[in-house]
Design a protein that fits this description.
The chain has 345 residues and is of the alpha/beta class. Helix content is 46%, strand content 14%. It has three domains: 147 residues, 3-Layer(aba) Sandwich (Rossmann fold); 69 residues, Helicase, Ruva Protein, domain 3; 79 residues, Winged helix-like DNA-binding domain superfamily/Winged helix DNA-binding domain (Arc Repressor Mutant, subunit A), CATH 1.10.10. Strands 2-3-6-1-7 form a five-stranded parallel sheet, covered by helices on one side. The chain has a two-stranded antiparallel ribbon with strand order 4-5. It has a two-stranded parallel sheet with strand order 8-9. Helix 8 runs parallel beside helix 10 and helix 9 crosses helix 10. The chain binds adenosine-5'-diphosphate.
Length: 345
């Protein structure tokens, strides 16, 4: 059975058990420290400078992309660069109309309201956000049935920064109210190495260039995973009594952790193996795959698949998921060309 997503070292979602508490120490504090995402940073810089000049709050913004790529970090950078306060919350944490009302009425002029996983906000609450975002007013419904009435309150001009891993689930009325919509991309190897080096510097850990490359290339192009792996490798080196992290130490640590040269862990390999061995390489539907691996369909779709597809090991076809030739080769299994080709047609 597949290990729970939250317990995986290469999980890209933040852990809820304080296991990622060190993340805050490693967060870039301003745009110049924020590695990669060049175009996004440029546009953001221009927008921030223009609004500061006009002494106006920023337009509402939506960041989307897989977990761990730096959406929360960006919202904090924006608040710092704008010199405003920030309130951080998430879609599922806002349960009732009263929760949202209290958050909105406690904001100060110009503040950033960061709502992570905004696609999980209830529809009834989303509707309250429309007038808050557009006209900076809060329309509350008081009471029920025929005696229900609406109460309108003015709100300070704030900037809503939404983050989502599933932009397709954002309704169009909500999407239309964002002035900027930014996509975060996976990081290339050079950027990942830079992130590893930067984090090692903050953690006062010495590591060789080869070891930094190794950690970077095993981190699924995701900064959160790079930081987590770096910490694990550092612990391993310390445990062995090594002062600095060499390639040899990093290799040993990854072997212990079950992470292979592509950055795949046991779960990824298990998922590919199930497709190959139980479904003859696919195509297999998501729900069947979820049942066969005892894993949640959402987790397969949001967490495992983006990386496996990026590595060219998995394809999503209109008939289901398929393991690629690369997946067979990586797992050392025999690829049956004709049979698989005919399934793709
Ligand atoms: P998300 O909100 O997209 O899940 P976070 O913003 O929480 O991701 O980022 C996770 C961690 O990765 C942060 O603690 C930060 O240290 C690191 N990180 C993310 N993006 C970058 C970046 N561009 N440069 C350096 N570190 C980054």
């Amino acid at each position: 059975m597949i290990e729970r997503e939250a317990e995986r070292i290469v999980a890209s979602k933040a852990r809820q058990d304080n296991g990622d508490a060190f993340e805050n120490t490693l967060r870039p504090k301003d745009l110049s420290e924020y590695v990669g995402q060049k175009d996004l940073k440029k546009q953001l810089h221009i927008a921030i400078q223009a609004c500061k000049k006009r002494k106006e709050p920023l337009e509402h913004m939506l960041f989307y992309g897989p977990p761990g790529l730096g959406k929360t970090t960006l919202s904090m950078i924006i608040s710092k660069e704008m010199g405003t306060g920030i309130k951080v919350t998430s879609g599922p944490a806002i349960e009732k109309q009263g929760d949202l009302a209290s958050i909105l009425t406690n904001l100060q002029e110009g503040d950033i309201l960061f709502i992570d996983e905004i696609h999980r906000l209830k529809t009834s609450l989303e509707e309250i956000l429309y007038s808050a975002m557009e006209d900076f007013v809060l329309d509350l419904i008081i009471g029920k049935g025929p005696s229900a009435r609406t109460m309108r309150m003015n709100l300070p001009r704030f900037t809503l920064v939404g983050a989502t891993t599933k932009v397709s689930l954002i309704s169009s009325p909500l999407r239309n109210r964002f002035g900027h919509i930014f996509k975060l991309n996976f990081y290339n190897n050079e950027e990942m190495t830079q992130i590893v080096r930067r984090s090692a510097g903050i953690l006062e850990t010495e590591l060789s260039d080869e070891a930094a490359n190794k950690v970077a290339s095993c981190s699924r192009s995701t900064p959160r995973i790079a930081n987590r792996l770096l910490k694990r490798v550092r612990d391993f080196a310390e445990f062995q009594g090594d002062q600095s992290i060499s390639l040899e130490v990093a290799d040993q640590a990854f072997q212990e952790l079950g992470i292979d040269m592509l950055g795949l862990d046991l779960n990824d390999r298990e998922l590919l193996k199930v497709i190959i061995e139980k479904f003859r390489g696919g195509p297999v539907g998501l729900s069947t795959l979820a049942a066969a691996t005892a894993e949640d369909a959402d987790t397969i779709e949001d967490v495992y698949e983006p990386f496996l597809m990026q590595m060219g090991l998995l394809e999503r076809t209109h008939r289901g998921r398929m393991a690629t030739k690369g997946a067979y080769e990586h797992l050392g299994l025999q690829w049956l060309e004709e049979e698989t080709q005919s399934k793709l047609l």
